[in-house]
Amino acid sequence: MATLFLIGGAESPPLLESGLFDREVLLRDAETLLRRLYSDRVYPLPNPWNYESGVSLVVLPTSGGADDRAGRGSGAEEDAVLLNKLFGKFFPTFNIRAVSQFAVEEDLATLLDMVQQERQLCRDRTSRMDHWMHHDVLPAEITDDSHRANSTCQNNLYSMLKHFHAAQGTDLRVPRVLRNIRFSELVEEVDAEGPTGPDTVEQFQEVLNTWEFSALNLTTLQLIKCGFYILHTLSQRAKVPTADNKLYLLLFTLEASYHQINRFHNFKHAIDVMQATWKLCSIILPQDHRVTLLLCLAAIGHDVGHPGTNNALFKQESGTSRMFQGHSVLENFHYQIFSSILRSLWPTVFSLTRTDTEHKNLIESAILATDMSIHQKYVDILTERSTSDVPLTVVETISLIIKAADISNVTRPLHVSAKWAFLITLEFKDCAALQEYLQSRGNSTNSCHCAVQDSRPREDYDMEFEIEMHELINSTPFSLDLLLKKYPAIPAGQIFFINTFAFEFFDKLAKIFPDLRFLIENVESNKQFWIKRQESRTSS
């Protein structure tokens, strides 16, 4: 769904009449715009206003200064450049761009053509993922290439390369327009209009302090509040407190750095992994508040910008793959993005990593450990340590904790685990579709994918399916039978994952940390259920 924002009295009848926008929103200034973006983004799922399933434009008025009166509109042009830089850093997954009213009038046909092409591309899941991973053209405000300011390929759509370069800017200051937002008030306003959920400290303790925690049954705002509760508590214990407003800005920025429209790898997964990390640390490292905070931060940031695919689907010649020499591309990307967010919004956290060598790169080590291609390395570490007197190092311990948390879905109670199994099944289906799509295009290296026209028909963003998916997960009571009737392939996928990755890992983890025995017991129980369902399906 696409929005046309008209700011401060800006007008554009041709854009309104173009049929490219689903709604028109008139706002007073940039601050009210940003508040609106935040409140729209945390609208209860399925969310039509996520700013990823359409292309939104923000039209700024000419200021009436000398340059504008001369017909050049430079004042509004400069404001648009600054706003686009802000979007790139604090709303990176949003398909949104600011333009001046002067620029609209100057080159309306080009603008409409660009929005039309990008609207078509971003509403098709497969070509959208391809664009995210392989689009290599950067917008003018990142390259400072002013002669491309009116290019037909302005990169309104998200791409990983664009996200990476926007995050690497040297200006770490938070713009005043963001500092002026009182996030506690914004949270209260949005919360009052949404569904009821945990609100008090005691209620959040109850929701979070159990292995039955289900991020999938919480709204986006409730997830942000869960993150706030955990990080606020841990920061106090680790003696690196931060202001509530800054912590909320960090969490809203992180949420906007995840693709809300991904099936599995989204902010819900991030909070789920952080909660699991927090619980595991309370068992393994109960008194090490510093490491627990750093590890929980690594957990919430370990998949920022995830395209919902895997490392094997990156083309070797793509800009993102080349940046990391094809090695753990996603994990290196996630770390670089997340560390840049922390440097800007919570730099004092890094003081915790400078006290000794083992802790120096703790967050980086933790995030890189989530690469499933090196899973066997950690199984081997567990095997070796379980038969020797050599203790685990700090890096090995934190790597094992976050790995356990990252694949903890199979260790949750069945009614929680099955919902995650459903979502990962959908994401694997998306990966298969992308692989087929890439093979059909051969070795195309067109760096401007917005210009590529595919022969296959495009599908509009399917809100009906999003609603069905949401209802399946959140039905009361939850019907596992109905889910498996609609998606009979789930048991086979779960059996494969448990046999290939999870069982040996959690079994050996429990040998070193006996208090984690409940994890492998849940894995075994879930596995037996999936085997029975698979057998009944085969025999019928």
Automatic annotation (TrEMBL):
The entry's keywords: Hydrolase, Metal-binding
GO molecular function terms listed in the Swiss-Prot or TrEMBL record: 3',5'-cyclic-AMP phosphodiesterase activity; metal ion binding
UniProt binding sites for Zn(2+) 2: 303
Root EC class: hydrolase
InterPro entries: HD/PDEase_dom, PDEase, PDEase_catalytic_dom, PDEase_catalytic_dom_sf, PDEase_CS
Alphabetized PROSITE patterns for the sequence: PDEASE_I_1, PDEASE_I_2
EC number: 3.1.4.-
Start and end residues of each PDEase domain: 190-537
A Pfam short name: PDEase_I
GO biological process, one term: adenylate cyclase-activating G protein-coupled receptor signaling pathway
Positions of the catalytic residues: 265
Domain of life, source organism: Eukaryota
Cofactor: how bound: Binds 2 divalent metal cations per subunit. Site 1 may preferentially bind zinc ions, while site 2 has a preference for magnesium and/or manganese ions.
KW Metal-binding (keyword) present: yes
Cofactor(s) needed for function: a divalent metal cation
Residues that coordinate or bind Zn(2+) 1: 269, 302-303, 406
Family membership noted in the UniProt record: Belongs to the cyclic nucleotide phosphodiesterase family.
Protein name: Phosphodiesterase
Organism name: Huiozyma naganishii (strain ATCC MYA-139 / BCRC 22969 / CBS 8797 / KCTC 17520 / NBRC 10181 / NCYC 3082 / Yp74L-3) (Yeast)
